[in-house]
Amino acid sequence: MALSHQSVSGLSHLRATRLSCAHSWSRVTFFNNLGYLSSLLQCNASTSTRGQLLSRSYATKPGKPKAHTGRPAASKRKPAAARPDAAAGVPKKAPSKKTATRKKPARKAKSKPSPKPKPQGKRKSLTDKQKAAKEKKDAGKKKKDLRKIALLDPPKQLPSTAFIVLSTETSSKGMPVSQHSKELSAQYKSLSPEEMERLNHVANENKAKNEAAFKKWLGEHSPVEIKAANIARSQLRRQAKKEGSKKTYPHIQDERIVKRPQPPYTYFVMERFASGDMKNMKIGEYAALIGREWRALSAEEKKPYEDRAARDKARYTEEYTTVYGTAPQFQKQAKNTA
User: Fold this and answer.
1) Residue 194 and residue 154: Cα distance in Å, rounded?
2) Is 305 exposed, middle or buried (0-12, 13-18, 19+ CB in 10 A)?
3) What domain range is 18 assigned to?
4) How far apart are CA 67 and CA 42, in angstroms?
5) At 274, is the secondary structure helix, strand, or coil?
6) Within this chain, do residues 190 and 276 fall inside the same structural domain, yes or no?
7) Closest CA to 64 of 29, 27, 38
């Protein structure tokens, strides 16, 4: 095998180093030296590889050299404190902004077609019995709603007359009603003045308590509620009469309720009664007479009564709007027709 000039120069350098380190080479034999030379000749002749082989210590035992991969040696990074730019406080370059990608517009969701209505089958006609049951059920529900609006829960009234006070004080247990009524009437007629005075005193106290309790109960309800309650009571009274019931539903007496306006004919009737010309006459007789007199009046003679009715109507409109917070019914109808 022929040796290159570079290999020979390296060998001479190694020999010179051996002479200076005789104490180390005394342990190495000639055959070991030849083996090391043969491994040296097989390595690449580049400067970096030769420098690595020459810098190897000869005190160690020669072994098989590592195969060269051909990659450059990794450069050692300097610490951040040793960098000149970090020490000088040079600001780092800002990373370049990436161009914003345009978002694709979201697609509009397609509206689903509304499902077609299912064809309804023919409704079965109700029998007469079912119709009667349905009408009865509806009437019962309507009556229940009317009773709720009618405010049928006023405070309980205490006995306010001497006779009723006496009836509450006497016991009627085990006695028929007719017999109790007869005995009570006889007892009331035979009362002494002192006993009658006592009963009247109790009745007057109860009357004052009833008025105070009723006034307090009225204050818990607005005029609008009292007005609706009276309307519901009128409907209940007509329904009871239709059913043959004797139950009555009297209107709630409240001074806050706006009095309805009177027509011109009513003022004429009031004037005729105040004159005293209708005394000792039956209702049907004086009603027919007043009606004939009214029809016989001219327009000028009716005008004073019509003026009084117009003023009363204006009063009613003003009070109705103030108390109930809305216009009267006849004004609403006039606006709708206009």
Assistant:
1) 34
2) buried
3) 5-54
4) 10
5) helix
6) no
7) 38
Domains of the chain: total: 3
Least trusted range by pLDDT, from 80-94, 168-182, 225-239, 292-306: 80-94
Nearest to 52 by CA among 71, 65, 39: 65
Alpha carbons within 13 A on the beta-carbon side of 159: 14
Confidence (pTM): 0.53
Per-residue pLDDT of 254-284, as tens digits, reads: 999 999 999 999 999 999 989 988 888 898 9
Residue 160 to residue 205: CA distance in whole angstroms: 8
Q: Are residues 222 and 269 in the same domain?
A: no
Neighbours of 4 (CB within 10 A): 10
Task: Report residue 286 as tokens.
Answer: 């004086």
Q: Which of 273, 261, 275, 272 is nearest to 307 (CA)?
A: 261
For residues 196 and 199, give the distance between their C-alpha atoms in angstroms, rounded to a whole number: 5
Q: What is the identity of the amino acid at 171?
A: S
Same domain? 234 vs 153: yes
If DSSP codes are grouped into helix, strand and coil, which group holds residue 276? coil
Our measurement of the distance from residue 99's CA atom to the centroid of its chain's CA atoms, rounded to an integer in Å, reads: 48
Kindly report the length of the chain.
Answer: 338
Beta-carbon-side half-sphere exposure of residue 337 (alpha carbons within 13 Å): 6
